[in-house]
Specification:
single chain; 160 residues; mainly alpha; 3-stranded mixed beta sheet; 3 strands
């Protein structure tokens, strides 16, 4: 659900206020783009194991995000949050499950699962077409490197 005009071309684009929902969606897109990019770049090296690269999503859990949306969108978002909150899960009891599964599952190891989006209840979903966009992934990777170099200096690793 990230905006269709996302290009990850500059800091100005990243710093543009696009609202909490789009910001969240763009951050999830960036997570999945990075995972897919790494999997493609590492290719055969991943088959040697024991590293597995996947993205996870905690599902609908109770976080501060709805409060941020309420601040941004006002009363309508407050009503929507109040209605949806009872159906949201606890972040500790439910939200951690996809990440724990990705990190500890024998199935992930046995099947050599890489580059998927793991959601609740051990389900894998294919990343969206936007998340599989090679040019977008390349833009994001280059922007990340640029920002890190500006903030940290020379990177202690080679570019992939």
């Amino acid at each position: 659900m990230a905006p269709s005009d996302v290009q990850f071309a500059s800091l100005a684009e990243i710093n543009r206020d696009i609202g909490p929902s789009y910001l969240y969606s763009r951050s999830k897109l960036a997570q999945v783009l990075t995972i897919c990019y790494l999997v493609k770049q590492l290719g055969e090296e991943l088959k040697a194991g024991p590293t597995f690269i996947n993205a996870t999503h905690p599902g609908a859990i109770t976080t501060d995000q709805p409060r941020q949306a309420e601040e941004a969108y006002g009363i309508l978002e407050k009503i929507g949050t109040t209605i949806s909150r009872p159906s949201m899960n606890d972040p500790v009891k439910q939200g951690c499950r996809p990440a724990l599964y990705a990190a500890t599952s024998e199935e992930v190891v046995e099947q050599g699962i890489h580059g998927v989006y793991i959601v609740l209840d051990k389900k894998f979903t294919e990343p969206s077409s936007q998340a599989l966009d090679d040019a977008l992934a390349e833009n994001l990777w280059k922007l990340n490197e640029k920002v890190l170099r500006e903030k940290v200096g020379d990177l202690p690793f080679e570019s992939i």
